[in-house]
Design a protein that fits this description.
The complex is a heterodimer of chains A (88) and B (439).
Chain A: H1 18-30, H2 37-55, H3 70-86
Chain B: H1 8-17, H2 22-40, E1 43-46, E2 63-67, H3 94-101, E3 105-110, H4 144-151, E4 157-162, H5 168-173, E5 177-180, E6 200-205, H6 208-218, E7 233-235, H7 244-257, H8 265-286, H9 288-292, H10 298-309, H11 312-333, E8 339-343, H12 352-355, H13 364-369, H14 375-380, E9 384-391, E10 397-404, H15 409-424
Helix pairs in contact in B: 6-15, 8-10, 8-11
The chains are: A mainly alpha (88), B alpha+beta (439).
Amino acid sequence: MGNSGTGDPDKRAFESDADWLEQGLQRLSTAGVDLTETEVSKTKKSLQRLSLALASLGVPAEAAPAWVGPDRLAVAVDAFDSLLKSGR
Amino acid sequence: MPALPNTASALLRAIRSGDLSLCEAIDRQREGFAKGGQRWRCVTRRLEQDLLVDSSLPLAGVGLAHKDIFDLPGFDPGLGRGVGQPASRAGQAPVLTSLQRAGALNLGALTMAEDACSATAQTRDLPTPLNPRDPRLAVGGSSSGSGVAVAGGLAYASLGTDTAGSVRIPAMTCGVFGLKTTHNLVSRQGVAPLSSSLDSVGVLARSCEDIELVLRAIVKADGWSAAVQAPRLAHWLPADEMDESVAGLVSAVFQEFSHRSVDLGAHERAASALMQVVMAYETGQVHRQRIAAQLACPQVRAMGTLGLSLPPVWYESALIDRPKRLQGFLQACLQDADVLMVPLQTESLPDAQEVYAGGARFSVARLLAIHRFCGWVNYLGIPSLAVPIGSDSRGRSVSVQLLGRPREELTLLRVGRQLERAIHGEQGVAPSVFEEDWR
C-alpha cells in the first residue's frame, strides 16, 4: 500500500486500491451493514472515483497517525469557525 | 375580496396603515394555507399556534411555514418519512421561537425529501408535492415543501436547510429566491442533522426584502457584517458545462451586472470532492443504525454506505484542509470582488419524469444538472443566494447563485434586490395561481 505514514503527505500516491477497498467493505460489515452485490459494486466505484479526486488533492488513502490526529482535527475545525466569524 | 399583498413587507405596510386588520390577515392566510396545502400536497402538519397580537412587531401577522425538520412543541419532525409523531418534550427549535417572538405566524410543517438527503421532492411514503409553476416540472429537494409553499403563495417565506443545495435547488425549481446562510450563522439547535459540518439553515421567499426580514429576526445584530455600499461583482461562467439556452440567458445577465470574469474551476473541483467525503462520512455516522436495520431511504443508504466504508483519514483530511481551502478561495476570488455570480443549473429545469426515481424518462445526467454547482459552496461554508433571472426558450425558470464572504448575507441580498428589481419589478416574484385564485 502506498501510504506508510511517513514523508510528505501531499506526495503520497495511491499505488494500490485493493487494501483500502477491502477495508471499506470490512468497515461496513463491522457496522452491521449487509450489502447486495450491486451495492458492493456501486460502493467500490464511488470509493475509486473519490480516491482519484482526493489523490489529485494530496489526500492519503490510509490513516497517517503522524500527520492526522484528534488535536489537529480540533484545531482545524476551530480555525475554520474563526475564519467564518471574521468574515474574511 | 382583494388578494393579499404579494410580499411580507407589503403585508406589514397594509397592516400598519390599517388597510388590513391583523385578524383578517391571519384568517385569510390560514385559509389559503389549508387550501393550497391540499392543492400542492406540500403540507404535513397545520398549526394553530398562539400569536403575539402586536402589530408593531417586525413580522406581525406574517404567515410562514417551515420544512418538517424543526422541533415543534410536542412533536418530533416528520423528516419526510411521514407525519411527525407526538413527543414528550415540549420545546421547539430556538430559530422558530425567534420568529414567533417577532410576531410571525407559523402556519405549519412542510414536506421534504426523506432525511434531507435528496435533490428532488420524492419520498417513499408521502405524496410528492406538485410544482406550482407547472405541475409537470420536478420539485427540487430537499426543502421541497418550502419551495412549493412559497411559489404557491401558501406562505410568505419558509425556513429550510441546505447541506449540498437543499434550499437553493427547490428555490430554483420553483422560481423563487433562496438563501443558504453562512455555516453556523443561524442556530441549528432542534434541527435534525444530516451532515453537521455542512448543514445550514436557509430562507426561501418571493423577494429579497422578505428574506432579509426573516433573517433579521433569527440572526443576532452583531452576527453579520453590514452590507457593502457599492458591491463589486465578478462572475464565473463554465459555459462548456451548460446547455446553450441556459448559458445564453445566464451570460447575458452576468454581462449586464458584472464586468469581470474569474475562473473558480480549481476551487470548485477541490471543494466538491472534499464536500462529498464530509457529507458521506457524516451521513453514515448519523444514520448508521437505520442503514444497518434496512430502514434508511435509498438516498441515505447509498450516501451513508459510502461514508461508512471510506477511510476515516479522508474525512479527517477534508476537515483539516477546510480552513486552508476557504482562505485560498477568499484570497483568490473575493479580494477584488464582493459578490460572485455563479450558475446554479447546467440545463433547463427537468420534468418530474426525468429526475424522480422510477420515472419513465429518468436520467442521472438530468438529476446532476440541478445540483452540480451546489455542494462545493457548503464545504467552504460561505453564503449563497439563489436568484431567478428569467425563463429559457422552453419557458422554464432559470436561476443563478450569488456568493459572498462569510457573514455577508446583507451584501448578497442588496445585489439580489438589484437583480430582482431589474428583472421582476418592485413586487418580487409573483406566486403561481393554478386553475383559480383560491385567495
